Each structure stands twice: as structure tokens, then as C-alpha cells.
């Protein structure tokens, strides 16, 4: 047995494993109403400059891949109706909007008495079916605020959406 050459053949079964990678996407449908006011609720957002401010904020939203449906407001606060891109955090977006728009307002001398935005914001979500009514509401802020102050409006939203709050921290 030692004098013969032996050929030993090992046969391995090779399995080819195919891994399929699917192009996964994130899908969301979250309609936000974001509301914030000027610092100390000062009436500094004069009518002549508002449209330019809204266009600027719309550009910020577009750069963040968010869909802007409507922006509106009055002299002491504004409302933004938007859908956020899945990669965008709400708090970070509001911070970016406030910081960049403050810089823009000051650089363009858009509102000479503007001293900045309030600390914080309010945000509420809505079903897609509410979108048209929400847009209409924001388009007609001047009419709504003939009969209702920003404080009354905000408290109404907070209560309607069961948000706990302490009034001493609202204003």
C-alpha cells in the first residue's frame, strides 16, 4: 500500500449564496403646521416684507427637501404648513428656519424693528384630508386675527390637540 500512489479527491459542494439587495425607501405622509412668534410677540413683521420672508423660508424648506404647502401669518407670528423629508428632524428644521431667516431679515433690512424669534415653537400634525382647510386657514390669518389674538389661537391649538402646557411659560 505504501508503494502505490493514491489519489485522494475531496469534493466540496460549493453553494453560491445570492443575496438580493432591495432598494428600500422611507415613505411618510406627515403634514405639519409649525407656529412660532417674534421675540416677545412684538408686532415687527410688517405687511410689505412678509411675502419676501415667506419666499425665503420656502427656499429653506426646499433646500431641506421638504414640501411647503403654505406660509402665512400676521405681524407677531407665522404658520408654516409643510411635509418634512424623512431625513429631517422637526426641531433641527425649525432651528434652521429661525437662524437663517433672522440673518436674512437683518441683512436685507426687511423688518427694521425685528429683534428675533421666540424661543421654542408649536407643531401639530394633520391627516392628509385636512390639508385644504389648513391651507385656507393659514392664507386667511389676517381675517382670523381680527377677532382672536395669537395667545388665544395658540391656547386653542394646544387644548384641541391635548398638549399639556403651563400658561406662565407661553408668553
Task: Sketch the topology as an H/E string, one letter per element.
Answer: EHEEHEHHH
The DSSP helix count reads: 5
Domains (count): 1
CATH superfamily: Transposase IS200-like
How are strands sequenced across the largest beta sheet? 2-3-1-4
* Measured distance between first and last alpha carbons: 100 Å
CATH architecture: 2-Layer Sandwich
Q: How large, in whole angstroms, is the Cα Rg? A: 27 Å
As for the CATH topology, it is Alpha-Beta Plaits
Uncertain regions: pLDDT < 50 for 5+ in a row? 5-12
Binned, the helix content reads 25-40%
Output mean pLDDT: 89
Q: For the record, what CATH class applies?
A: Alpha Beta
Number of strands: 4
Name the descriptors.
171 residues, alpha+beta, Alpha-Beta Plaits, four-stranded antiparallel sheet, 5 helices, 16% strand, globular
What is the gist of this entry?
By secondary structure, the protein is α+β, with helices and mostly antiparallel strands. The protein is 37% helix and 16% strand. Strand 2 (67-74) and strand 3 (77-83) form a beta hairpin.
Amino acid at each position: 500500500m505504501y508503494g502505490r500512489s493514491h489519489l485522494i479527491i475531496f469534493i466540496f459542494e460549493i453553494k453560491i449564496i445570492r443575496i438580493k439587495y432591495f432598494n428600500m425607501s422611507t415613505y411618510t405622509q406627515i403634514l405639519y403646521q409649525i407656529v412660532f412668534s417674534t421675540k416677545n410677540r412684538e408686532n415687527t413683521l410688517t405687511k410689505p416684507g412678509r411675502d419676501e420672508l415667506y419666499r425665503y423660508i420656502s427656499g429653506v424648506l426646499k433646500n431641506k427637501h421638504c414640501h411647503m404647502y403654505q406660509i402665512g401669518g400676521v405681524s407677531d407670528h407665522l404658520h408654516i404648513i409643510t411635509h418634512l423629508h424623512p431625513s429631517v428632524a422637526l426641531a433641527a428644521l425649525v432651528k434652521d428656519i429661525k437662524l437663517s431667516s433672522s440673518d436674512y431679515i437683518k441683512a436685507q433690512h426687511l423688518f427694521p424693528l425685528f429683534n428675533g424669534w421666540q424661543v421654542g415653537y408649536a407643531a401639530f400634525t394633520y391627516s392628509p384630508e385636512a390639508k385644504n382647510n389648513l391651507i385656507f386657514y393659514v392664507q386667511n390669518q389676517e381675517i382670523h386675527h381680527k377677532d382672536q389674538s395669537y395667545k388665544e389661537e395658540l391656547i386653542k391649538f394646544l387644548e384641541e390637540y391635548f398638549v399639556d402646557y403651563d400658561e406662565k411659560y407661553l408668553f
